[in-house]
């Protein structure tokens, strides 16, 4: 009976589009749960699907969490890094030297992506962040402030996309 129930749950999850935690993030926490998801569009063009995974009961920015972006188009890694810096600047000023350092760090961990590929970023409290392309490590950034500001692009109330933030956090507004 338990095996049948487990099979039914698995089939339901696959049929409903529920994703499993990216393998890349599993080693960073004992348990994971999907907090929410959303879609990013720009002038009507779909850019990516986003999923927020948490290691606690609810999203807590001081605990380990993972953000998975599954791309709907091809993007160059240096363009992803540059756009990230632009968004961090929009949310709060960065000193030019700091922006240049952070840009180099992001360019180091962001590869070019093709449609259907995903980058997963894992926030590591007190350490920084780890990044993965389709489950394979692309690098780590040992800078907690950079990691926090990077994930704030999606999770801070000042985000450019409040409806995406609401979806990620699992709220209606």
Automatic annotation (TrEMBL):
GO terms for molecular function: isomerase activity. The keyword Lyase does not apply. The keyword Signal applies. This is Chalcone isomerase family protein. Residues 20-170 form the Chalcone isomerase domain. It comes from Viridibacterium curvum. Keywords: Isomerase, Signal. InterPro entries: Chalcone_isomerase (IPR016087), Chalcone_isomerase_3-sand (IPR016088). Residues 1-20 form the signal peptide.
